[in-house]
Amino acid sequence: MEENDWIKRLEQLHFSAVHVCHYSSNPGAVQRRIWKRFAICRVIAGKGSLSMDNIVHTVSQDEWFLLKPGMYVEFQTDMEAPVRYQIILFSCVTLTRRRNTWHTEAFDLPVTGKLHIPSNTRDIQEMMDTLVSGKYSITSLEKTRRKHLLHQLLIQLMMHLKEATPVVAGMDLALEYMTHQYMEDIRIDQIARMAGLSVNHFIRTFKRQLNMTPIEYILKLRMAKAKQLLFSSDKIKEIAEQVGYKDEHYFSRVFKKNEGIAPTLYMKNKVNRIATLYYGLDDYVITLGLRPVSALSYGQRVDRHVAIPALQTHSHQGIILDSFNQNYDDLRRVQPDLIITSDRLEPNDSLHRIAPTTTLEYTNHFGERLLYMADIMGRTEQAVQWIEQHAELSRVLRGRIQSRWGKQSAMFIRVTSHFYRMYGLNNQTGALLYDDLGFYLPRDFPEQQWAVESKVRDLQLYDADHVFVMVDPTEEARAQLRQLQQSSAWLALKAVQVGHVYNAGDIFFKTLGPTGRMWAMRYVAEQLGVTLR
């Protein structure tokens, strides 16, 4: 973001809450948490280390840090010089006016982490002192003054930050190098020179600040990455090389000594507590005979969620995460061995600090994905069983649908607050309707597009024999549906005229998982008057 842009964004800030705290940590204490608010922190005294989303910083007197929501933070204080610090916690949004209407948007800071602030910034120091001095009462006026002063402090911090030259030196330079180059052949004397210390002094200082030796820190990084890579089709030799070991046998010995099990057996025998962080991934895990410790709920995205008995039997042992407000503190408490997420979810580096995290690429080829996961986890029998059952169900339902209806076209429409979207071949509803059940796309639908957003007047371009409609659970979406149903374009569709319009329910989300997909196949068939009985 250009300087003028972020200054303008800062000027548009609206603060909803501000809290000021003073902390004195215990010698050697370690604190871990997912950060929930923005925070400005100034260190008053002491030493330690602060890790934010895998970036480790040393902590010492008169240093400033800026944190944002969603960060995984691990704070380690020195045994001999415990840290005392001041912290301002705040929540804010940007407030903008467009077409005579005020709009709020989420705010993101232009920088986070350790702030390289010049030492001669007395104005900033005085602002912070005033904010944390405790002068303010709880009156509305004083709360407003506090928010105004915080706003000015934040702007000044950013302005001074631009003027400062960020110099990474000493222990911070050594830590940064180790964190990003752990897969290289790192020598202790090399990183000690980076820190400007003798080898013995460097090792003592490192252990005092991080509660582990430099070698133990590098090993920790290598093992975390190795456990993530083991959820892949990579050979052990390739994984060993990626984490810094030229000899795969030596890597295996180190891994077994550290984890208590050989890397070839780790995924199959030790990974039992699996957290899933996208719709349908919990279904994959359950289909393979395991019980996920977390799942992402889509209950808020549909009007009515219908439970699938086959999945309910293996009810989640852990937590159901809110898809709109994911609480990674709860996820950390269930202590997963592995986190599986999707490339459709915005990446979050803090997940790697909770457990090894693997990101699966989205696919409609459920059989291939299931076999891939099953091979890694030693669950091939369960995957083959699903593939056989799915193929047989598809064969039976395709035959019965065609016997009753002949060769017919179908369309899946989603009604949202802002648009009507028709889904094509290259998505989960396309796999359901066209691959599993044998319908075909309306003639003029562009086959290569996964979906098309359309205006009401364009609906006749994609006229189908059967239409399945999903409506988002908002008043605006329901109003859009009423508008659609009253339009001449809708009433002219052949599916509408003969009564072949069906409630799609929550199959849009159910079809993201293998067991849910088979349930959706039966659901669609029943809507068409076709059953297995």
TrEMBL record:
<dbReference type="InterPro" id="IPR018060">
    <property type="entry name" value="HTH_AraC"/>
</dbReference>
<dbReference type="InterPro" id="IPR009057">
    <property type="entry name" value="Homeodomain-like_sf"/>
</dbReference>
<dbReference type="Pfam" id="PF02311">
    <property type="entry name" value="AraC_binding"/>
</dbReference>
<dbReference type="InterPro" id="IPR020449">
    <property type="entry name" value="Tscrpt_reg_AraC-type_HTH"/>
</dbReference>
<feature type="domain" description="HTH araC/xylS-type">
    <location>
        <begin position="172"/>
        <end position="269"/>
    </location>
</feature>
<keyword id="KW-0238">DNA-binding</keyword>
<dbReference type="Pfam" id="PF12833">
    <property type="entry name" value="HTH_18"/>
</dbReference>
<protein>
    <submittedName>
        <fullName>AraC-like DNA-binding protein</fullName>
    </submittedName>
</protein>
<dbReference type="InterPro" id="IPR002491">
    <property type="entry name" value="ABC_transptr_periplasmic_BD"/>
</dbReference>
<dbReference type="InterPro" id="IPR003313">
    <property type="entry name" value="AraC-bd"/>
</dbReference>
<dbReference type="InterPro" id="IPR037923">
    <property type="entry name" value="HTH-like"/>
</dbReference>
<keyword id="KW-0805">Transcription regulation</keyword>
<dbReference type="Pfam" id="PF01497">
    <property type="entry name" value="Peripla_BP_2"/>
</dbReference>
<feature type="domain" description="Fe/B12 periplasmic-binding">
    <location>
        <begin position="273"/>
        <end position="533"/>
    </location>
</feature>
<keyword id="KW-0804">Transcription</keyword>
<dbReference type="InterPro" id="IPR018062">
    <property type="entry name" value="HTH_AraC-typ_CS"/>
</dbReference>
